[in-house]
Design brief:
By secondary structure, this protein is of the alpha+beta class. The protein has a single domain, classed as 2-Layer Sandwich (Alpha-Beta Plaits). Helix content is 25%, strand content 31%.
């Protein structure tokens, strides 16, 4: 059964668009990681300022393999950094990593 990792990122009220822009320009390094099954960025549709980055993994070992890989560091560099420039100011005010195991549901 897959495991789900959720990075709950709280941003300033006027920074959500910038977060979405940065995710759109992401390196995509995680896409080829062993055991990676998918990724979604969820934007709040109410007054909340916490965005959710949902990743699905084959198992905990696959996630830990990604977390401890050199590709993880590369995947978290900004577009400007990958081009040899300076890192932009962080958008997130805080973040939490939540972990879940799929225990039921329906097939789509």
């Amino acid at each position: 059964m897959s495991i789900i990792k959720i990075n709950a990122i709280t941003v300033a009220a006027d920074s959500g668009d910038e977060l979405a822009k940065r995710f759109a320009a992401r390196a995509g390094a995680v896409d080829g990681a062993e055991g990676f099954e998918g990724f979604e960025l969820l934007q709040p549709t109410d007054e909340r300022t916490t965005w959710l980055v949902i990743t699905r993994w084959r198992d905990e070992g696959a996630f830990n393999g990604w977390l401890n890989s050199s590709a993880f560091g590369q995947g978290h560099r900004s577009e400007a950094e990958r081009a040899g420039g300076e890192a932009p100011k962080p958008v997130g005010v805080s973040s939490e990593l939540w972990s879940y195991r799929v225990s039921g549901g329906s097939a789509v």
